[in-house]
Every structure is written in C-alpha cells, then in structure tokens.
Amino acid sequence: MRWLLSLGLLAPSVGFAQTVTIDLDGPLVKKAGLDVDEINQGLNDAIADDLRLIDPPKYLGYMAEAAAMSMKGMGADYASNPKGIVGGLSFGTAVAGVPAGFARGQTDLPPGGYAAQLSLMGGVNLGMLVPGEDDFFDRVVIYANGMYLTPPTPEIFRGTFFNVGLHGQVKVIGPANAAVFEWGGLDLTAGIERGSYLLRLSKALPLNGDFGGATVRWRADGDYTLTAGSTSFPLELSTNLRLLVLTVYGGVALDINAGSSNSRASLSGPVEVDLDGEFQSLGNASVAVEADGSAANTTQRAFVGTQLNVFFFKVYGHLNVATNNSFGGHLGARVVL
Questions:
Q1: CB 324 within 8 A of CB 97
Q2: Which of 6, 51, 87, 129 has the highest CB neighbour count under 10 A?
Q3: pLDDT tens digits, 174-202
C-alpha cells in the first residue's frame, strides 16, 4: 500500500500556485518503524520552510525591494566633487523584511529579501566637454554604470548580478574651500537604474530532517529559479564635508520603483531514511511552484558614507536605510582626475 500526500495551493489574486506531492511506500515506512503521517507532515513543513513556500508573494516582495535597494548609490559619487573624470568599482548587498545585515544567511535560500550587486561606474564633469565660461556646465556631472556577472560559488543556489544606470548630478549650492577643510555644497542627483538579482539551483538540493526518531532525506533535483528586478528613479539631495584626507557625506532620497520578482520550480527526487548508517528509499516527493511578488512603488531613504582620499585614489563605504524596512550598503574604490 502506498501513501500519497498532495498539498496544492492556488491563489491567482495574490500571484502564486504551488503543489507539494509526497508519495511514500507504506509497508517500507512501517518496516523501518516509522509513522507515515509524521514523515509526511515533517517533510512537507521542511520543504515549505527551506524553499520559502509559506507565503511566496510576501517573500518575493521582499526580494524585489532588496533588489531595488542593492543598486542605490553605486551609480554616482557623493563625496569627491569631481572637476574632471571619475571611475570606480563597487560591491554591495541589501536586505528587506529581516534585521539589518549584509550576508545572504546560512540557509540555501535567503531567509528574507536579499540581493547583491557589483558595478563599474564612470563619470565626467560637463565643464570639460563644453568650452566657454558658462559656470553651469562646471556644476553638472553625468554618470553611467553597469555590470553583468555570474561569479563562481560553492552555493547550491548560484547568484547572477545585473545592473545598468544613468545619473545626472547638479551642484545647487557651490562648495566652500579652506585648504584642509572643504564643504562640498549641496548636490541634487537624479537618474534611472535597472537591475536584477537571480538565484538558480546549480546542483541537487539535499533536505534533511529528523522525523519520528530517524533522519529522513529528500534529494531534490530539477529547476528552481528566483528572479528579482527593479527599474528605479531616485531623486537625491546630498552634501559632503572633507577634513584633510577624510570625507563624510550624507543625504535623503525619494525612490520611485517598479520592482517585481518571481520564482519558478519543478523539483523531484527520492525520499530516503537513514537506517544503521545507510540510506534506504521510502518513496518520492515533488514540488511545483509558480509565484510572483512586487515592491513598494515609492520609498523614502537616507544615506551616509565616508571616504578616504589618497591624492586621486579614493576608498569609500556607503549605507542606505529606507522606510520600507530595507537596508543596504556597498564598498568601493574610485579614481578621480
């Protein structure tokens, strides 16, 4: 006699459908001295928890908000007041819906919204390109940034970064310079950013649990992708202050976001139990998921940073905190000429 547990959820109005099917061989389970219902329930709970299937739209909404936050501040320079050209590289992460932090976590999938980005940035002061004595062009810097990368990783879910952006920065109030001290004035920065963070299952997913006094394992294989992306229009007001080789800066921002995320999964594999150090098959389990989520349309944000200036070489750190319970930061290096 075989025992089949199939749990399906369908809710088009909130954007998800999922089915968890656990097909166990009843006699084999009893021969192992285990309870079928206990294994079914324990395995179903573990699958829902590890694969983030408890409330997919909410979880994916956090992923979309983290994807939007992960790009903030990478595409412009808020500390150097460039008079010529600037270029740099930065790496950062963001979280949403979980306590502030920078790591993805110890689980195979992040416990809440998470995204990472790596980006190359370049900018030019328009005063270099437009001849004449017009002071306006000396106050405007145009920036572009972007990157696409799938770095090597031992993680079961491999991440892919993508971002591209274009920003314009206008110095509304000019700087005040007193040799070792400089106030950078007041900058207005606006632009458009598009980015995504994709997690894809790169190898078989082992899921273990202790049910009824025995170690039960589900070895799932197949496809699982989770994609979070955002098109964002930030509007930022910032200032900076330099003392000798150290600059601090900060600002406030309004972000208009069009962010969404989705997960698609088709997984199956044997359910096994550890008996005297050897795993024996009890049946099979499968999971099918289609889910979507979205980010808040507008958020308010504050940001701060510090930069170490060694002639034309700069090293900096940047932090973002938003009103939608998202948090992010990045580290980078720049050359300013």
A1: no
A2: 51
A3: 999 877 889 999 999 999 999 999 999 99
Helix residue ranges, H only, 130-282: 135-138
Cβ atoms of 119 and 145 closer than 8 Å:
yes
pLDDT of the residue at 15: 61
- pLDDT at residue 13 in the model: 38
Q: Quick check: 156 and 202 in contact, CB under 8 A?
A: yes
What does the block give as tokens for 226?
């989770």
Closest CA to 113 of 64, 55, 155: 64
Q: Is the pLDDT of residue 84 over 90?
A: yes
Positive or negative, the Cα torsion across 290, 68, 253, 144? negative
What residue numbers bound the domain in which 69 lies?
2-336
Which residues pair with residue 114 across a beta bridge? 95
> pLDDT tens digit string along 2-40?
445 545 444 443 467 888 888 888 888 887 788 888 888
Three-state secondary-structure class, residue 54: coil
Asked if pLDDT for residue 255 goes beyond 50, the answer is yes
Residue partners of 178: CB distance under 8 A and separation at least 6: none
Full-model pTM: 0.90
125: its two tokens: 């002061």
Beta bridge partners of 9: 18
Task: Give the C-alpha separation, 151 to 53, whole Å.
Answer: 27
Q: Cβ atoms within 10 A of the Cβ of 307, count?
A: 24
The first and second tokens of residue 55, run together, are 């409330």
Q: How many domains does the chain have?
A: 1
